[in-house]
Design brief:
This protein is α/β, with parallel strands linked by helices and 361 residues long. The chain is 35% helix and 21% strand. The protein has eleven helices and 13 strands. The strands form three sheets. It has a seven-stranded parallel beta sheet. The longest helix has 15 residues.
Length: 361
């Protein structure tokens, strides 16, 4: 099999603020897999580590990608099933490289299914083309801009709003929640907040009490990852349900996943395939969570439409009523034209549109 990769820089349409800083652009590496060098049938996968967060983000990633592509080419291996692909990735790509695992899984699955951007059999990108309910995301920034984003999301028909908090004055962030509740009940609009670990032991309980007054559905990662004792106490006593996010990064072994879930006992976990090890790893987290009556939803992590397409197809293989976090495809000036389309708070696969990946091949 032929395998190569290409670096591509995605540019944000605005300054994307989080509690970890402001993002202006991000790099992705697109893995190209085909049966022969000149084949028009090819699979594309996105390896999109996040700077400062992904275990495999670093200067040596391109060398690792080159080595991985050479290993695939030299092996003479040909997949006979989807399980063959997951096994090859598991055996040949280290668990410390979750973004690479996800990118290679996606590229191989795409090629295996005929290079049509069909990654997994599902009812979102295939008949009956059922849309996926998603949350609208309000990025951090000055209060006025956050309010403008909020109004735009409400007008666009989202009934679940996620607000990133923790970077500006907390009282000003609360005002955004107050604005929603002045106009919409909790039955009409679901509010999620994401602190990205910004709270600390001295203020977290006070802030959770304040958030609860506005009937917030859940808060993602209120404190920084690694504080297991405090996180367990929060999950047991918080007036707002807690969803683990960054806490899952770097937890690769099955027994370690079980230990984490049973020690903390969260209400929800957030699954980002790029950060936790890809499709197979996400499936394992979901199975372990459901065995313990822990809720979950899947979220993209600033991938282009290529990565978002794969994550959406994974999501569509499950029956869940919770809105998913799959709306990042509209963030970039230079994203790839694709059938992905957001309407009225739902992500659609619009068969009237086509993929344009010419500048990747």
């Amino acid at each position: 099999m032929h395998c190569s990769f290409q670096k591509y820089t995605l540019h944000f349409k605005f300054l994307a603020g989080t509690s970890r800083g402001v993002l202006r652009h991000k790099d992705s590496f697109f893995i190209h897999v085909s049966q022969a060098y000149s084949s028009k049938v090819f699979g594309i996968g996105e390896c999109a580590p996040l700077k400062g967060l992904s275990p495999d983000e670093g200067e040596d990633l391109q060398a690792i990608l080159s080595e991985c592509c050479e290993k695939l080419k030299r092996s003479g291996w040909q997949p006979e099933s989807e399980d063959d692909i997951f096994s090859w990735v598991h055996e040949n790509i280290d668990k410390s490289l979750p973004a690479l695992r996800f990118g290679m899984e996606t590229a191989l699955l795409d090629a295996f299914h005929g290079g049509k951007r069909s990654i997994i059999t599902n009812n979102w990108s295939a008949p009956p083309y059922q849309p996926i309910s998603i949350n609208g995301l309000v990025w951090m920034g000055d209060p006025q801009w956050m309010l403008e984003q909020l109004k735009d999301k409400l007008e666009a028909g989202f009934d679940c709003i996620k607000i990133k908090i923790g970077a500006i004055d907390f009282a000003e962030e609360i005002q955004l929640l107050a604005f929603i509740r002045e106009h919409y009940t909790a039955d009409q609009i679901t509010i999620r907040v994401d602190a990205n670990g910004a709270f600390n032991q001295t203020d977290v309980y006070t802030k959770l009490e304040a958030l609860a007054k506005y009937q917030v559905h859940s808060i993602e990662q209120p404190i920084a990852a690694g504080q297991l004792t405090l996180m367990r106490k929060l999950c047991a006593h918080s007036p707002v349900d807690i969803a683990l996010d960054e806490e899952l990064i770097g937890v690769m072994e099955r027994q370690d996943k079980i230990s984490l879930l049973e020690e903390i006992q969260p209400q929800y976990i957030i699954l980002k395939p790029t950060l936790i090890g890809g499709i197979a790893a996400s499936r394992e987290w979901i199975a372990l969570a459901e065995e313990r009556q822990i809720g979950w939803w899947i979220t993209s992590a600033l991938e282009s439409n290529i990565g978002l397409n794969a994550i959406a197809q994974l999501t569509a293989t499950y029956s869940t009523r919770l809105p998913q976090g799959l709306g990042t495809g509209q963030l970039f000036h230079n994203n790839f034209p694709s059938p992905l389309e957001i309407r009225n708070g739902q992500l659609y696969y619009n068969t009237g549109k086509t993929w344009d990946l010419n500048f990747l091949i």
